[in-house]
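Example record used in the benchmark description.
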Amino acid sequence: MPSLPFPLTGLPKDEVLRRMRALREDDARWREGKTFSLVYFAGDEVSAMAREAYGEFMAENGLSPMAFPSLRRFEAETLAMCASLFHGDAQVAGTMTSGGTESVLMAVKTARDWAKAERGITAPEMVLPVTVHPAFEKAAHYFGVTARHAPVGPDFRADVNAMRALVGPHTVMVVGSAVAFPQGVVDPIADIAALAREKKILCHVDACLGGFILPFARALGRAVPPFDFEVEGVTSLSADLHKYGFAAKGASVVLYRDAALRRHQFFTYTAWPGGLYASPSMTGTRPGGAIAAAWAMLHHLGEAGYLAHARQMLKTTDALKAGVDAVPGLKVQGDPPATVFGFGSEGLDCFELGDAMEARGWKLDRLSGPPPGLHVMVTPAHARIVEPFLSDLAQCTAGLRAGQPAPAGSAALYGMAGAVSGTPELDAFVRDFLDGLYQVE
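Model output (structure tokens):
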């Protein structure tokens, strides 16, 4: 990394902000509804609420509830409201975290420590559908848990019989998604939880993506199968407030069936000369702004607000899915019940199609598969882009079928990834890419 001189003198606020805004010019155009991941934009009014609430508590630190009892109350009440949303009783307990990855890390760490304390298991394993979020792989790597991967069925949902075959004497947890990121489907949580009960192990539901849309979709009459604490055998659940909860980043919750299980998440150290140290989750400092803004958003929108946003997003999703299926050769994958879906193509390179759409300003995540595809995550911002998106999609598809060359982009990389997926060579290539991101231009 080349040296960059440390600033000798400060710049006026207006100049600092001018430079920052100039650097933003090449960022994804999420306000225009042209980005289908990463940002969950529910409009300027909702964003302003989150921003103001965050700013009110920007300096406070959630590490010390004794110093900041307001944050303790915000977190406790946010957890209680979320437990209610997910059919939890008064015994359900949890913590807030910085995001879905930390929530998943905590659930896996809890399962590991529970199994060691209760079962004497020192070489823990967990059984996962291949479609679960890579955060579980990160947790396995960090915490010394072996991940056993089960295939999914033709409907892209977890194959519970395949999961059963992988459960062994060292298995501490099975996992299902609601919704799974690639195709937006809900795994058969009731069957996975029944397997966990039979084997007397834990069952985690990763609802980081779907947790704050599925309950409202069901209330609006959508066929959403049971996925949360109403399912006997579900012992923990994660859900991100900063996704479809529309809170400020980073805010997530990890909830447990009872406080006794949550205790395995905590870290304490009482031999430090600096005093008694207790941390509920991975991080030490916990940004007070994120905790406060999550509490504020739940109160600001309430059930009526979330239902209104869900109604609009589901209508937009229905139109987009129908439009995709109407393009010759394109098809939505599986039967996603909410606002996330993937689509693929027969006889067309999806990655080249993604590059063609990106040349027109659309940002679509690539699904490496199998089968390969493109990924759509719908927010309120997408209500106004249905027609232009589908028009560009039809034109790009027709152009590629007619032999027009695809713009240079990710197609070559993803084509290579499909050929060497999961190999040390591809991992090394991606690490090199990460190294390059930290070069000063």
